[in-house]
Structures are given as structure tokens and as C-alpha cells.
Amino acid sequence: MNHKLKVAILGSGNIGADLLIKILRSPSLECTLFIGRNPASSGLARARALGVPVSADGIQAILRDPDCCEIVFDATSAAEHVKHWPLLRALGKRVIDMTPSRVGTMVVPAINSHEFHASDNINMVSCGGQASTPLAYAIAQTQPGIEYFEVVSSIASLSAGPATRANLDEYIETTETAIRHFTGCPESKVILILNPAQPPIHMQTTVSAKVATADLDRLRPVIDRMVASIQHYVPGYQMVVPPVFEHNRIVVMVRVTGLGDFLPAYAGNLDIINCAAIATAEQFARERRTVAA
Amino acid sequence: MKDILISDPTLRDGNHAVMHQLNPAQIAAYCTAADAAGIPIVEVGHGNGLAASSLQLGQSLVSDHDMLRIAREKLTRSQLGVFIIPGFGTIKRDLAPAIELGVDVVRVGSHCTEADTTARHLAYARERGKHAYGNLMMSHMASPATLLAECRKMQSYGAEGVVLMDSAGALLPGDVRERFEVLVGGLDIPVGFHAHNNLGLAIANSLVAVEAGARILDGTARGFGAGAGNAQLEVLVAVLQKLGYTTGIDLYKVLDLSDVAEKQVIKSIPIVRPTSVVSGMAGVVSTFAKHVDRISLQYGIDPRDLFFELGRRKVVAGQEDIIIAAAMDLAHERRPAA
After folding, report:
1. Any idea what the CATH number is for the domain that residue A263 is in?
2. CB contact under 8 A, A194 and B315
3. Which end of chain A has the lower number of beta carbons within 10 A, N or C?
């Protein structure tokens, strides 16, 4: 008997293609359907070649065969997810939303992995959100009364597909919301830069907190522990500038090197949100096994 | 006799030169004088446009909302312009309110190879009945053929003109000519140029662009802008007049405007300092200048080395956070072995 948790991937772009490779490697997840919308898409062809069942019928594929999976990864776009969610909820599906739609409960495993069953719709925030909120959370825990956080991420142009480019506004809104939500800080600003340099740059994220003074001695061990706990599920997450106090702000910078599954290692942005989603889905799989036993 | 559309970002690019500390009285005074001089478009805002007030780039003294409100009150003939870079400013939070406040002209910017990030913002400005232009920043970093492809995207999104920004002041006259010959021949919409003066070529390059068919030029009073500044507005108007182009701007009035700017707005008139030269040579965006000066002092390194290191890392506009990382690496390399 197969004990793996059955999952479907909705969306055959960069995110969906990378999730598939990670799921094929997972000891507890099985991709039972990989769904796109264009029968001729390279994403579907690749999945078929990997021996994964595919469909080009979009959300209809799940509506037609609701038993195909227990969990749906929605890797389409924010606007599409808003349409998909009521249909999937009616089928009793759990959804891991990879888009910046903000429909469900935001989960960043290093901060609130325990909340993974708080809702049937788990939102993975954004790539920059996964990279930055744990750092902001660590800063907020050790420096009282921070009123403003800022997050700047630079990603390689090649790692930003059409949906990412069309969703820059949603990315900003969602990531800003996540920073405020997880830190309790009243104000946040998020900036995203696409850089076309060759060879492509690895994803870099800088978190700044506006402060009058800084207690870096208190912050450093907390932030080191946070980085280590992220490295459990995102091996390429690395601090490149440890917390410094400069110009009335605390600045910390990380670089995310991807696992090189679908896109090469520079696409740490793709990797970090997908690694977070896989970690969350594997929690569901563990919980299900515990309940069954 | 050809008409050249002059757009004046003194109150936007100039904000870089004062770490975004232009105050309400300065904005009001300049707008009043620019309106009197008949400047067609007056661009106002944080140096990097809407929603760019940040720790990354410097926080504005005056909010986007207040800058636009003050300018709108003073501009009766001149059109009010804003700059917005997707990735910084969003439609809902920033562009929609700016249009509500009475903005006439929206410039939507992206790095020179990322035009598709401007599609939604350009379309929104057009839908709201505003003049919408696409700006390609750091245009020294892409070939003429790539720039043409990117400009065509902006044209397809509804841009009524495209403007190449020489953000690092890195282009030589031959580079400018080559780019504009390709763009003018390959587009159905007017093309413009936004110069920086890092290598002392802002006016010369603007003229080369015009001779190659550019019909929109950016100039700022006394050249007030990031780094070594921009093409000097009053000089630009004068030489265009001498060459037989019309701008609709009266020479004496624009000269008066530049005096107002010097007296009331400009803290120190931009000159080509050594770090500006290096920034132009390294192809690093002029807006980094103040941050490089500050951070190289803190880490005890030569700002010129830092600029060249940033050039090697191919940083683009908005990546000011990389300055600290590069400075730390340089400081580490220079430390004598224990």
C-alpha cells in the first residue's frame, strides 16, 4: 500500500515545474496530477517524460476527478487563485497557495510551522517574504519598539517568469503584510529589483530596521539560530552581511542559493518558497500518518 | 524646424543631490517659476519616484502626496509629471492616488531589459486618460537591438513615447548615436533622452540624441540631479534654439528660472567630482554617490575602488543595499594578514 500523500500541482510554470522535482524526491509526497492549461506547454511535456500524470484542463481536471489528490499546490497567479479557492474548498481540498493572493493563513515554517493546520488554505507569502520575515521576526524579538521594517530583494531576471512580472504589485502588498503580521510592527516597505547580469545573480534579500540604538549582541545569537532553522528546509540560505548598525538602521543581508532543481542555482527565490511549501506539505503527511496510526 | 518636448525633473532627480530633503517652500518656489517660464512638464518626487522613500535610498522629507499637492497648486500651464518604478510603487497604493491629485504625465521606469514589468502601470495611466511614457534606466547596459525590443514592448503597452535614461552617465556620443538611430527607425512613437553628466557629456549627448531623431529631452536647472547632475536645462534650451529647434520656452525666462533654483532650491551646484567620473567609468548608477561616500568612510576604503567593485557586480538602479556587502568584502580583502 502506498502511504504517500497525494498532491496535485496546478500551474506548469517555473514554480510548478520546480515543485514537481522536489516532490518526486520527497519520501512522503506523491504527485498524482500535474496540471497546465496549454497541451503543448514544455512544462507538461517534461512532467509526462518524468512519468507523472498530466492534464491541460486547468482546475477542471480536479473538479472532474476530485479523488485524484488530497492537497493542491496552486502555482498559477494571484488572480487565478481567487477563482480556484472556492471550487477547491467545496471539494474539501487543502490548498497550499504559492501565489501572493493572501487568501489563506500565511505560513513561514521557521516562524509558525505549527500553524500549518490552522486553515485549509495555507499561503506561502512570497519568495522575498520567506527570506525576510524570519530575520525581521528575530530583530523584532530582540529590539523593542521597532516602528519600521524594510525589505529589499534582488533576483535574477531569468528567474522571474511572466506571472512574477505581472504580479509585482501583489508581491509588494503581500510581503509588506507578512512583515507587519509576523513582527507586529506598524509599518513596512518592500522593494523588488530584477537584475539581468550574466552570470545571473543569486537571490539577495536585505532587511533593515529603523532604530535609534541597536543591541547587536542580543540579536546575533537569535538571528544565527533562525538562520540555522531555515537551513533545515532551505539548504542554500546564507547570511552574507551579519547584523550591522549603519545610518540609524540595523541591516542584515542573506543570499539564497537554489538547489538547482528546475532553474539553476541562482534562482534561490524559486527555491525558498518551494522548499517552504514542501516542508509544509510534509507536515500534513506526518500528521496524517500519526492520525492513521 | 523641429519641436523638442522638454521635461524638467529638477524636483525629482535633484532630490537625490540632497538625500530627498527638498522642502515644501522649495517645491512651491520652483514650480511657480517653472510655470512662469512655460516649462512643458515639471516632474516632482523622490529621486527614484513614487514610493521610493526608504532606508535603502533615503527617506523623503515631504511625502509623495504633499509634494504632488504643492506642485499641483502652483502649476497652471505646465503639466505635472511623476516617475514610478514597478517593484517600488504599486498602482493601488501609489499611482492611483497620484492621478487623483492631478498628475498629467506618468513616466513608468524599469531597468533597460525589464520593460515587461511596466505593462500594467502604463496601461493604467492610459486608461485614466493620462500621458504615459516608458523610461528605460541604465541604457548603457544593453545593446541597441535589445533596447529596441524593450521599447517596442513599451509601445505595445500604450506608451506614447519612450525615454532612454543614461543613469550612470556612462554613454559616449557614439553610443548615443548608435542607440537613437536604431530606436528612431524602429518605433512609431517619439523617443527621448535623459542624460547624466558623470563624464561631462550631458549636453553633448543630448544634442547627439536630437540629431539622431530624439524628440523628448530631460534637463534640470543648473543640472541639479544625482551624482554629477543632468543636462543643464537652461543650456539645453539655449543650444537647441541656436541649432534651430523650438522648445516653446523663452530663453530669458528659463535663465531666470535657473537663478531661482540656485537661490532657493539647490544646496550645492553639481560638478563632476572624482567619484562621479569613476561612477561613469564603472557604469554604476549616479544615485549611489552619496551612499558610496558615506559607506566607504565607515569601512575605511577608497570610494573609487568601491565604485569599480560595484561595476564588476553589475548592480542596477535600486540595489543600494549591495554597497554595504561590497564594502565589507573590500575592507576584508584589504585587512593585513594576521
Report:
1. 3.30.360.10
2. no
3. N
Chain B partners within 8 Å of A154 (Cβ): 319, 321-322
CA atoms within 13 A on the CB side of A2: 9
Mean pLDDT of A252-258: 97
Residue A290's pLDDT band (cuts 50, 70, 90): confident
Claim to verify: residue A132 and residue A264 sit in the same structural domain: yes
B314–A195 CB contact, under 8 Å = yes
Q: Which amino acid is residue B130, in one-letter code?
A: K
Picking from A150, A172, A241, the nearest residue to B54 by CB comes out as: A150
Beta-bridge partner residues of A189: A150
Q: What is the pTM of this model?
A: 0.95
Residues A43, A134 within the same domain: no
- Say if residue A133 is in the same domain as residue A262: yes
Segment B242-288, tens digit of pLDDT: 999 999 999 999 999 999 999 999 999 999 999 999 999 999 999 99
Dist. CA B51–CA B45, nearest whole Å: 9
CB of A120 less than 8 A from some CB of B? no
Give catalytic status of residue A127 as yes or no: yes
Mutate which of B321, B323, B330 to test chain A, going by most A C-beta atoms within 10 A? B321
Residues forming beta bridges with residue A121, ordered by sequence position: A95
Same domain (yes/no): A157, A229: yes
The chain-wide mean pLDDT, for chain B, equals 96
Domain total in chain A: 2
- pLDDT, tens digit, 9 for 90 and up, residues A194-219: 999 999 999 999 999 999 999 999 99
**C-alpha A53 chain-centroid distance:** 24
* Cβ–Cβ contact B327 with A under 8 A: no
Q: Is A197 on the interface with B (CB under 8 A)?
A: yes
Neighbours of B25 (CB within 10 A): 11
What are B276's three cell numbers? 562621479
Residue A36 and residue A58 in one domain: yes
